[in-house]
Specification:
Length: 360
C-alpha cells in the first residue's frame, strides 16, 4: 500500500487535473495561458486544488498539450433534430475485436468505441438520422464489417445524464458551482426541453469552426465565418444557451483516478423508469444515463476507483432502488473513441478526428 503522503499527493494531482479541465471548459473565451480572463466568480482557484494560479495554469497547459484532455464543442443531435444515438453491442470472431474496433473508429457517424468484456466484445455509439438510416446500419453496413458475427442495438429515447454535466465530486460543491456559473452552455440540461431554433448558414459555419477548435478566439472565429466579431460572439452565445451547441471536457475517467469503467444494461419496470433514472442521474459515478428501446430499457456508464466500489454501487446504490428487475454488467477494457475523438492505441488506429454531429 502507498504511504499516506503519496496517496494524498495523488489525490491532490487528480483534483488539480479536474480543476484545470473545469476551468478550461467554464469559459470558452479564456486562454489557457491567460487565467486572468476567467470570470471573477472563479478567482479562488487556490482553495480548490491546493495550488497557486500559476501552478494550475502550468498544469492545465501541460495536460492539454499531451492530448490527455480535449475541450470540445459540438452540436447536440437531439436538440437540433439531426439524429438519434444508438448503442450497438458488437460480437466478434476470436482475435478480431481490436480489428473491428479500429475499423469502426473511422466511421464519421460513430462517436464512441470501446473494447469490453461480457456478452459483447465491442460497444459502439452511432448517430442515425432516421429509421431508414438505422435499417441500413443494422442490416447492411454493420454485417459487412470483417470480423463481426453479430450485434444488438439500443436506441436512445431520453437522456438523464451525460458527460457534459458529469461531476465526479473531486472538488467541493462551492467550487463546482462557481465554475459552472461561468459556463454559457446548457451543461445542466441532459435532455433538451424544447427543440433548438433552426440554424442559419452562419450558425452552421460557426458550429463547424467551434467543433474543429473550441478554443478559437472570437476575432479569428469571426474572420473565418465572414461576419463581424460582435455577430460571431452573439450568435455563438445563442447557440450555446439554446442547447444547440455544447461544451465538454473530454477525459477518460482513468485520468481522474477512476479506472474501473462499466456499462450497465437495465430492465426497469416502466412505471418506475423515470424515478429510478432521477435517483441515479446525480450519482458521482454515473457519466451517462439514458432510457432506451431494445433488449433493455435503460443504459448507463459508470466509473469508479476500485472493483469494491463497483460492487458497492451495484449492491447498495442500485440494490436499494425499487423497480430494477435485471442488470447486465459489461466491463470497459479500453476506449478507442469518445465524443468523436479517437485515442489511438492499437496498431492501425485512426488519428484524432472530430465530427460536427456532436454530442447527443
Amino acid at each position: 500500500m502507498l504511504p499516506r503522503s503519496s496517496r494524498a499527493s495523488i489525490r491532490a494531482c487528480r483534483g488539480a487535473v479536474f480543476t484545470s479541465c473545469q476551468l478550461v471548459t467554464a469559459d470558452r473565451s479564456a486562454d489557457v495561458s491567460n487565467w486572468a480572463r476567467i470570470p471573477p466568480a472563479q478567482a479562488s482557484r487556490r482553495s480548490w486544488s491546493g495550488s497557486a494560479s500559476a501552478t494550475v495554469s502550468r498544469r492545465a497547459a501541460r495536460i492539454l498539450s499531451t492530448g490527455e484532455v480535449h475541450v470540445s464543442a459540438s452540436l447536440d443531435v437531439l436538440a437540433t433534430g439531426r439524429g438519434v444515438p444508438v448503442f450497438v453491442r458488437v460480437r466478434c470472431l476470436p482475435g478480431k475485436a481490436t480489428e473491428v474496433a479500429n475499423a469502426l473508429t473511422g466511421w464519421p457517424n460513430v462517436r464512441f468505441v470501446s473494447l469490453v468484456s461480457g456478452a459483447a466484445d465491442c460497444l459502439v455509439e452511432i448517430v442515425v438520422t432516421d429509421r431508414a438510416d438505422l435499417l441500413t446500419l443494422t442490416m447492411v453496413q454493420l454485417p459487412q464489417v470483417d470480423g463481426m458475427v453479430g450485434s444488438s442495438s439500443e436506441v436512445v429515447l431520453r437522456r438523464f445524464a451525460t458527460g457534459v454535466g458529469w461531476n465526479p465530486q473531486l472538488l467541493d460543491p462551492p467550487a463546482v458551482a462557481a465554475l459552472r456559473s461561468g459556463r454559457m452552455d446548457r451543461w445542466d440540461q441532459a435532455q433538451p426541453s424544447s427543440p433548438a431554433p433552426e440554424l442559419s448558414a452562419v450558425d452552421e459555419r460557426l458550429a463547424l469552426a467551434l467543433t474543429e477548435n473550441s478554443r478559437i478566439r472570437w476575432g479569428e472565429l469571426a474572420e473565418r465565418v465572414g461576419v463581424m466579431q460582435s455577430t460571431a460572439r452573439r450568435r455563438a452565445t445563442n447557440l450555446f444557451r439554446s442547447g444547440a451547441l455544447r461544451l465538454r471536457t473530454v477525459v477518460e475517467p482513468e485520468a481522474l483516478g477512476l479506472p474501473v469503467t462499466t456499462f450497465l444494461w437495465l430492465r426497469v419496470d416502466p412505471g418506475r423508469l423515470n424515478v429510478v433514472a432521477q435517483q441515479l442521474a446525480g450519482h458521482p459515478a454515473v457519466l451517462l444515463l439514458a432510457s432506451t428501446a431494445g433488449e433493455h430499457n435503460m443504459c448507463a456508464e459508470v466509473a469508479v476507483a476500485r472493483y469494491e466500489d463497483l460492487h458497492a454501487f451495484l449492491t447498495r446504490t442500485m440494490g436499494a432502488l425499487d423497480g430494477i428487475r435485471d442488470v447486465d454488467v459489461t466491463l470497459g477494457l479500453h476506449t478507442l473513441k469518445r465524443a468523436s475523438i479517437v485515442r489511438p492505441w492499437f496498431p492501425g488506429a485512426v488519428g484524432a478526428t472530430t465530427d460536427v454531429r456532436g454530442h447527443g
